[in-house]
């Protein structure tokens, strides 16, 4: 018994199986098949490996962004000069990757809780019946008291009075000077799969360079300081138009890295595009243009709670980090090779179909390729020999069939 | 030499190799193998290709979201009527994808820096020894002065006085009217791999439609305006319960797109679910229910810095964008085909095992399939002929062995 | 006709094709090939399946995070005692995953709109010509009036006056007590592909445990309450140094889950690391150290709009959720098997090359493996027989060639 196993094992280890093949010497089939195989080979090596880098595995990054604005704005509304600094025009103030820079506003000062009519033109009424006391209108400014005010023909509401008058948006935008503000972006990305951490302050971008540089797509593509006017222009919008009614700009920091080369070549690229509609697109203004929000500063005056309401029109900047790192990995490599071999198998099947069904000499090739076992006509006792040899009518015929 | 290479090349190009095969005419093996092969084929075509769309590559989106609330709230606390508008009840105000709508609050007005005892019931003490001067308690309101106040039996602290009394949460919630607020979601997604950008204001969702519509799961599934009460209800919670103590709701904008059809079919789906515990789940209240935070409005009164402290209970909404786009790609297609061919190979191996080890006529098939080279017994000079022909004892035997 | 189709179908179903193979009994080739095949097998089973878990598909999570700080800070600046609670030192207040804890500040109280010179040392001038009226300097505090103030040798600006003096950063940091603040993290992750939702309040982390526990890397690795001092220390920084000038710490919540086991084993791991530069790295201070932002509290005093400006130095915490769940999936399993079979095919090709080109008896094996069709010399009328049998010069020769 042990001998048997040992012999089976030695058989297994000292033997090698390889498929028997027919070498068809036919120009048409040869050329067709070699071309198909060459195509598959070019596809696997050229496309999968070289072009699509199929020998690499990929990873996206976890990232952290913070931002800092610099610059001072100035407004002169009916002789009242005001200077706006970063604590006043950035929302929120703590340097989030998504923030709003105020470029225009409608200010309503000294609001206090009380009763006043809605703006004329909106929520108009003809009699008290149009103003159901205690109810709200979705776009109203307070709770209706049930009174229709004759002078404005609008419902009276309980709320912060006087109500905001946002019927006219200042034009040109009050804070056109926002164009010259600068934005500093600090971005760190980590590719957990490869254990690589990179910052957008790459090699060569030191404190000295940052203090002087300004981003330019070709001249200073790695400078992390951006002029707002440049950003808006690069995204294809007109700053004045965007500043007037507000809008949203995406700043894409693109980390597409091949980590098979030294990681110092892994550098960010900055792209800018409008979110929600492109500048040239006629549909872009079809729905919900502009960007604004309301913001209140509360204070006490003579023991009365008051607030200053700002309807802020601004440019919302979203720093979007997009990342894709690639590095050589044995598994995708071998998977690509393995499935490439499989596709070679498909090529063989296609060639066989040509050989066996399309060529004039297909019957001949069929006989070359296949050996038939006619077990139906076979002597059931015979196990060791083939049908033909059992019939044994002549060695020549046996060989013919055997092929 | 050149001729030799040319001849080798022409041999290579005009020749074609195809494996020789045995066609076994055996019903059992035939049926078993065809069924196995059919199974593999059904798996590859039916499952990998049709069901799992294995011919497509996938991509997730980078996205940008902003939100806008509308609606007015009203509270009447001990006769004091207050109206709350969007500048007062949304945190933060600038329309972030993650924000809080205040639904209940505990207000502590007129706090100023000073010394006062902690709330009775919390941080109780019996003597000054229980209140170590200059130290802090983790949940305390200030720095202990080292005095135990007799009237309240609590430590005296230096801090904003009077301390907040949050022992009773208003019930019903003060801002139940929040149920009728509406939320407008603007979401833009970009699939960088496919260069496709979509907005949730899809074709047909124009300014006119938005001004009138309200989201409904079946009647208006694409309307980007949501009533808060509906959102909470669709996520399975009771609005009043959530409004009282606060909670967190995830609004999932699901972009599952097949970009092989026109991109106009790439539309968002909105889903709503509670974060941190489900409504029906008994475990959900086991740890840290509710959602609240403290917020202060600072002001000066008679040259004294004061503040109004709000403990805000609210519903936190997280807009979560989930995206998966698919598009035909040659590489996953050929990888799937290639590995499918590989699995076909496995099927062949299985059938061979059946054929060679399980069938009664296995020896016969073994002889059909394999040709043995007994090189040990072979004349070492012979290179061109096979063992059998060298022995040449008879053509019949030669053929038998050769098969 | 119908019979023909039926017969073709029955032929197809009752037949089975299997490749014919040569069993080479050669120790060298056998051992080499078996070793190659064994290597491939070990790679596929050991590496792809067991080590890299290639039988599983993967998914990343959509997640939601909120945070809550607890603790009280105390400052004593020139005898003025102030207590800072969570409403004062956290920005923003509503519990975002990315927030700033103030640890140091420069306060400028009572600013109002007016004209005043810039700080001496910055923006210095020698004559009015250095101060172009109506223009701005990028790092200036307002709009230049065109006057060079003699006393400070700096340009006069219109802006919030007096201007902030941030030339000296308080040392030691004013709010060193921030070290003892605690941070509570609530995190929920959903793996959409597998339909699994998990919270960092896993089984066993109930309200009772939370009320007492404090995170420790080994003793309490699942406690979601963190002491700021511990976080900073675990990320390798000195708290005092970071607190003075500010910095950014990433708190990575790592969900690496094998969902083939019960989902209760899917637990978070917390890691801490500095963003933008590591503590020991000499380059880390090369560009833009520290983290600060400006924040203003506006108020009215005697009908004059004033503000208190805070330059906030703080530690920015980014809660970064990193997730990777794996679960058995039939498609990657079969793809791995399929491409593994393909690689087996490569092994066979390599062995064949050895067999056919390197062995001394290569010609013999070539004859064993290949059958040649010399169609050029063949009688064109013959379709059923092979070349050799047509020539029919002798059965021995026929068999030789046929092999």
TrEMBL record, chains A, B, C:
This is P2X purinoceptor. GO terms for molecular function: ATP binding; extracellularly ATP-gated monoatomic cation channel activity; purinergic nucleotide receptor activity. GO terms for cellular component: plasma membrane; postsynapse. Residues 375-403 are annotated as: Disordered. Functional P2XRs are organized as homomeric and heteromeric trimers. Forms heterodimer with P2RX2. Forms heterodimer with P2RX4. Forms heterodimer with P2RX5. The chain crosses the membrane at residues 29-50, 336-359. It is found in: Cell membrane; Membrane. Glycans are attached at residue 180. Disulfide bonds join 116-161, 125-148, 131-155, 213-223, 257-266. Keywords: ATP-binding, Cell membrane, Disulfide bond, Glycoprotein, Ion channel, Ion transport, Ligand-gated ion channel, Membrane, Nucleotide-binding, Receptor, Transmembrane, Transmembrane helix, Transport. Residues 375-387 have a biased composition (Polar residues). One of its GO terms (biological process) is response to ATP. Receptor for ATP that acts as a ligand-gated ion channel. ATP-gated nonselective transmembrane cation channel permeable to potassium, sodium and with relatively high calcium permeability. Furthermore, CTP functions as a weak affinity agonist for P2RX1. InterPro entries: P2X1_purnocptor (IPR003044), P2X_extracellular_dom_sf (IPR027309), P2X_purnocptor (IPR001429), P2X_receptor (IPR059116), P2X_RECEPTOR_CS (IPR053792). Belongs to the P2X receptor family. It is a multi-pass membrane protein. Pfam families: P2X_receptor (PF00864). Its main location: membrane. The keyword Lipid metabolism does not apply. NCBIfam families: P2X (TIGR00863). It catalyses: Ca(2+)(in) = Ca(2+)(out). ATP binds at residues 68-70, 182, 292-294, 311.
């Amino acid at each position: 018994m042990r001998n048997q196993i040992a012999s089976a094992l030695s058989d297994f280890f000292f033997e090698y199986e390889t498929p028997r093949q027919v070498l068809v010497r036919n120009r048409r089939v040869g050329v067709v098949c070699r071309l198909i195989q060459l195509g598959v080979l070019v596809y696997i090596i050229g496309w999968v490996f070289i072009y699509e880098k199929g020998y690499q595995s990929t990873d996206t990054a976890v990232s952290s962004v913070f931002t800092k604005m610099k610059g001072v704005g100035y407004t002169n509304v009916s002789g009242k000069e005001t200077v706006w600094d970063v604590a006043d025009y950035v929302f929120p103030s703590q340097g989030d990757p998504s923030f709003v820079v105020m470029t225009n506003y409608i200010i309503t000062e000294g609001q206090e809780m009380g009763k006043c009519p809605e703006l004329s033109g909106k929520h108009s009424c003809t009699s008290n019946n149009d103003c159901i006391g205690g109810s709200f209108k979705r776009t109203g400014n307070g709770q209706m008291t049930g009174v229709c005010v004759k002078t404005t023909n609008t419902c009276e509401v309980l709320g912060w009075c006087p109500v905001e008058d946002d019927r006219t948006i200042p034009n040109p935008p009050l804070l056109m000077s926002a164009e010259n503000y600068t934005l500093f972006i600090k971005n760190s990305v980590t590719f957990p799969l490869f254990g690589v951490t990179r910052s957008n302050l790459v090699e060569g971008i030191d404190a000295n360079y940052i203090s002087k540089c300004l981003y330019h797509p070709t001249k200073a593509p790695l400078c992390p300081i951006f002029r707002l006017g440049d950003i808006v222009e690069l995204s294809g919008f007109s700053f004045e138009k965007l500043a007037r009614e507000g809008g949203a700009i995406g700043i894409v920091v693109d980390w597409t890295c091949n980590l098979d080369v030294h990681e110092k070549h892994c550098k960010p690229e900055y792209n800018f595009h409008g979110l929600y509609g492109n500048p040239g697109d006629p549909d872009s203004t079809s729905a919900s243009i502009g960007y604004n929000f309301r913001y209140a500063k509360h204070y006490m005056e003579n023991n009365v709670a008051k607030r200053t309401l700002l309807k802020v029109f601004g440019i919302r900047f979203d720093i979007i980090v997009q990342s894709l790192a690639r590095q050589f990995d044995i598994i995708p490599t071998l998977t690509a090779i393995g499935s490439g071999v499989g596709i070679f198998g498909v090529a063989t099947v296609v060639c066989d179909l040509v050989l066996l069904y399309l060529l004039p000499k297909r019957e001949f090739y069929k006989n070359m390729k296949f050996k038939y076992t006619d077990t139906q006509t076979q002597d059931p006792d015979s196990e060791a020999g083939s049908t033909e040899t059992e019939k044994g009518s002549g060695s020549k015929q046996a060989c013919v069939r055997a092929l």
